[in-house]
Amino acid sequence: MRNSWFAGGLFLSVISSAGFAKPSVDELVAASAAEARGDAMFAYDQAAWHATDKFQEDLRRQGVDLAKLAAQGFKGYIVEPGEGGQLLASFYAQRDGRSFALARYRVTGSTVSGGGLVEPDSTATLSLLALRMIDAREKAIQQMALPDHALCSNSPANTLVLPPQADGSVPVYVLTSTAVGGVYPAGGHYRFDYDADGKLSGERRFMKSCFPIDYRSKDGNTLEAVFLTHLLDPQPTEIHVFVQRNIPISLMVGTVSNNAMWSVEAGKVRYVRDFPK
Fold first, then answer.
1. Any long-range contacts for 80-84 (C-beta under 8 Å, 24+ apart)?
2. Of all helices (H) and strands (E), which one includes residue 167?
3. What is the pLDDT of residue 64?
4. Which long-range contacts does 94-97 make (Cβ < 8 Å, 24+ apart)?
């Protein structure tokens, strides 16, 4: 059986009828930007995920364990634009003040189309873009160590770095990771923006509280959508889009400042209606 939209013990059916009010141009533009940014986040996250699986497979095949990798100064991964619309995922280490690739993979969607471990020679050189993105990632991790940057699970945070945007800034997302299967965190996510000089130009938290989305079936009932309120923006953000792309149900987002209801489904943001007054 498929249930009605449900969240936090309240059926969304209480929002039965309301007058339709067209969102402002600014809100619609911001919603469209959220779609595009959330879609990019999902693509880069997918590339990192599938490249990580291949990287671990290659390490096992070569008999390389994590202790040896740590001794090489392994730090993590970075994903940057590749040729022909592909993404390039590089797993890198740092030693003697130098960052270099241990492996790199070409990814299209959810498919790793090539790449592998690399020898520590000239082929291990990282691009200037990758180095800039790595620098931003490390600064964001340091920023997260400051007060008022709590996560919503005890699992290590995920980092997601996008290439420079139209304004030249590099956005770094530090995301609460999933700790329980079938439960996805909607809260505990942050963005840090670094300008062309590598300085922090802005940061934000996307939700004031933790909101774990439990989409597991209960008593034979399967959720179709989950409802949450959003206080910080008059429209859904890229985090709403990214979260929804990672769960098998739709999101219904109620933005409090303008009394509006939005749907996020298949990565698309749509205005639904105003809340009844």
1. 80/127, 80/129, 80/130, 80/133, 80/163, 81/129, 81/163, 82/106, 82/107
2. none
3. 87
4. none
Give yes or no for a contact between 220 and 205, defined as CB atoms under 8 angstroms apart. no
List Cβ neighbours of 223 (8 Å cut-off, separation of 6 or more). Answer: 2, 3, 5, 6, 215, 249
Q: Identify the three-state secondary structure at position 59.
A: helix
Residue 14: other Cβ atoms inside 10 A: 8
Residues 240-261 pLDDT 10s: 999 999 999 999 999 999 999 9
Residues of 76-106 as b/e, b for ≥16 C-beta within 10 angstroms?
bbbbbebeeebbbbbbbbeeeeebbbbbbbb
Mean of pLDDT values over 17-24 = 62
Question: Which pLDDT band holds residue 50 (cuts at 50, 70, 90)?
Answer: very high
DSSP output for 89-136:
EEEEEEETTEEEEEEEEEEETTEEEEEEE--SSGGGBPPHHHHHHHHH
Structure tokens at 111: 């498919």
| Helix H or strand E encompassing 186 | none
